[in-house]
Amino acid sequence: MNKTLFEISKMDCPSEENLIRIKLDRISSIANLDFDIPNRTLTVFHSGEIDQIEKSVLELNLGAKKISTEQTDQAEFKETANQKKLLWTVLGINFAFFLIEMATGIISKSMGLVADSLDMLADSFVYGISLLAVGGTITKKKQIAKLAGYFQITLAIIGFVEVLRRFFGDEKLPDFSTMIVVSILALIANGICLYILQKSKSKEEAHMKASMIFTSNDVIINLGVIVAGLLVNWLSSSKPDLIIGTIVFALVIQGAFRILKLSK
């Protein structure tokens, strides 16, 4: 048995972990995957050569770099008994906040909240792909990934069009208080999701979990919407909301292309 350590600089949260798991699922030589999100590392236990595994990881464009490969006597691995239950829990939280942010975003006329809701939906897609395709064929997984990726891109493009319409039109200012309150709740929800997914890893200390949460792209987006809400109120302008919305839509499309890579 061999043990290969990868450094993955863009692995910020469990969403990227699930993308990697799905990508590597088809490689039969892999015995186990051990993720350390706070330190952005992945340890792959495998038989045979590392070439196919390394190529698959690099194709995801997550800043992966092989650090070392060595032999190991480890042959048994402790699996998390409630992994599927945890995935269903975080999927439910993400999808619930997709609905909440989409509804409040439309009502409050905030493109930042609408865009953030799509980011929540993107995470739901990743967890959903992992769960719905468990035990399924590679073809089934590719079909699900392709459908999710294109649907996500379509929604983001519609969002971009709406941003342009509002930028050149004379729209009512978004409700900044709704933007801030809902984004704070989404921030808490993201923190809960990340904690739930990592709580079974006893090797992680509390400060490591905090480090993981506050370096997450999702958390940064939530903070961006909060700042945009403050600027909307301060400047009496909808431009900060439109700017953060545009940035998040771009991130959503970037995530969609990562999902589409799984369908190739």
UniProtKB/TrEMBL annotation:
Keywords: Ion transport, Membrane, Transmembrane, Transmembrane helix, Transport, Zinc, Zinc transport
Cellular component terms per the entry's GO annotation: plasma membrane
Protein name (database record): Cation transporter
Main subcellular localisation: membrane
All copies of domain Cation efflux protein transmembrane, residue ranges: 88-261
Gene Ontology MF terms in the entry: metal ion binding; zinc ion transmembrane transporter activity
Membrane-spanning intervals of the chain: 86-108, 120-138, 150-168, 180-198, 219-236, 242-260
The keyword Ion transport is annotated on this UniProt entry: yes
Pfam families named among the record's database cross-references: Cation_efflux
Membrane topology value: Multi-pass membrane protein
Database matches in PANTHER family: CATION EFFLUX PROTEIN/ ZINC TRANSPORTER, RE54080P-RELATED
Transport as UniProt keyword: yes
Protein localization: Membrane
InterPro entries noted in UniProt: Cation_efflux_TM (IPR058533), Cation_efflux_TMD_sf (IPR027469), CDF/SLC30A (IPR050681), HMA_dom_sf (IPR036163)
